[in-house]
Amino acid sequence: MSGLTPGFADPVPAAQACFRALLEAMARPGRVHRLAGLPEAPAPLAPAAAAMLLTLADAETPLWTDAGPVAEEWLRFHAGCPLVAEPGAASFLLAACGMPELAALEAGTEEEPHRSATLVLQVAGLERGAGWRLTGPGIETEHLLEVEGLPRGFLAAWAANGARFPRGVDLVLCTGDRLAALPRTTRIEEAG
Amino acid sequence: MGVLARADAEAITARLAEAPALPRHARLRGPETGLVMARGRQGGDGAPFNLGEMTVTRCSVRLADGLVGHAYVAGRDTRQAELAAVLDAALQDPSRRPALLSAVIEPLAAAQAARATREAAKAAATRVEFFTMATMR
Q: CB pairs under 8 A, 24+ apart, for A81-89?
């Protein structure tokens, strides 16, 4: 017996559409994108987060996740990625029940900053709203984003992550079928 | 599994017509065609080398009762891969296994063995005995 469920119904076009959505999200930090054609992911994976990993992870990208054995089996079957126990050893991280220390993750090197990790973080709520004021590359003046369910001290950890530029970790926030990206260059202030 | 991998889709479908109906299934992955690198070892125990790539079709399915079956077959026959995966899952169920074994697997295995014997007999007719040739001179 097994709890395996199908991945993308049509893997190639669906993964390409997700990749396009992620490019748009990274180019316009904080803007919320809605994905279509999502896989039936096992709990506690959010469909958008599961789709991101099916799109990005493969046999050459170690993955760290805290989503439990059913989700791990699903990801190993569909993405074929190795799973690691140490967050610092992973290229992609999927945090469904908390958040690993940003400072402990792979941040790349000064010569090769693209070797850093990408953290896919599931949050309770994500919409355009008055929580944060985002500025930085890809945002003309400022962008407002309301995120629920982040741990206390996130803003300080994010500021420290940005201060390491060009090194640092990129973040993808997911809830349900929506996602928003925060590349390492985005600065966040509390709005209001 | 080897019997199903060597049988073609028509042969499996023909045998299935006489077997109890298979439960409904959902496709977990595929059927999809790709390449795998076939590796060999010289003399069976030498250093491994890449012999070449071969076309393989794979499929994974889940039956309504939760059993998961996988199949990898040589070639591009997606229907064969899917049928083999469904049978792989159904054969794991002890209540279905005896009926499927006697209706599908054993006749297929017997037909394949008969074909292999026939081909071996045809090949044996043209066999050259090098030892005999040496003594005839």
A: A81/A53, A81/A57, A89/A62, A89/A64
